[in-house]
Amino acid sequence: MSIDAERIEQLKQKYGAKAIENGMRLRPSDFLEEVEWRDIIDQHYTRAWLDFTYGGLFTRKALDERTRLLVSIAQFLSLNEFEELERQIPSALAAGAKPREVLEVILQATVYIGYIKAGRGARLCIKVLEGLGRLDEITSTQLPLDGRAPERSLDEERQRWPAAKSAEEAALREQLLEKYGWHGVSTRIRTQSHQGYDSIKSLNRTDPQYLKLWFDFIYGELYTRGIVDDRTRLLVMVGICLAVNEPIQLENHMRGALLFGATPREVMEVIVHSTAYVGMPTTILTGRMLERILKEENRLAELTQ
């Protein structure tokens, strides 16, 4: 028996096979060290931590593992936990995420954490992929210079807009299309009409130049890239908003995730899983927020089935 195999067997006997085997599966390169330093200083805490994380939360099946790990990558980035980010990327790849998808959730995070931090995350992702010999899967899968714009049609997208709630909202939509162009405005209408228009009206009055940049970059470019589907992208955004403790956009993206195919249980799983990274106060409040949303949408029963 090798030294590592002997160490693993000893940890299984002490802490149980379930958590140790799952940890080795998810983090084969560093899990032993992660457990052993805790074991040296406090075995009781180590057992409780393993039971909660690798033996508990990280074994749940309410959310597919690929999505769960993509969410956690975005959360580690948002929390400035770059060491954990580096370790999580191979786990996400092993769970079936493509290199381009891993990079995409990092780039999408620009909206909430800014381009400087997202850029650091992207460079770290590239370093990891280079080490794994998989960088060509990034360089060979770039979007065209103009992204998805040539594939889009306003007439086709209009058919997917939710109905305007009033004649005033319908008129506002047309005014925004005329003033700011349809590529960004149409995406905002299609994906986030539930959020309302207060912020847009304010920016339209106070800084229309910035609003144009905002529409074009976020809704015209980033949210239409299609590298990850809208369900995954919005669950990632839920995780980011949890990590940065942004309750207004957190509610917005939970509603969006439900709109684009995530089940109530999947949204709740992102919240529950986040306890391991951001603690219970934030996740408990977010769980109550989700219950309120589901009650308003007549979907609370889907969470308790």
Describe the 3D structure.
73% of the residues lie in helices and 0% in strands. By secondary structure, the chain is mainly alpha-helical. It folds into 3 domains: 3-59, no CATH class; 65-141 and 226-304, Up-down Bundle (AhpD-like); 151-224, no CATH class. Helix 17 packs across helix 19. It is globular, with a radius of gyration of 21 Å. The chain starts with a helix and ends with a helix. 33% of the residues are buried.
Quick synopsis:
By secondary structure, this protein is mainly alpha-helical. It is built from 20 helices and no strands.
Biggest pleated-sheet summary: none
At the first level of CATH, the class of the largest domain is Mainly Alpha
How far do the termini sit from each other? 47 Å
User: How many separate helices?
Assistant: 20
**Low-pLDDT segments, ≥5 res:** none
Helix content: over 70%
Cα radius of gyration in angstroms: 21 Å
* CATH architecture verdict of the largest domain: Up-down Bundle
Question: What number is the mean pLDDT?
Answer: 96
| The CATH topology of the largest domain | AhpD-like
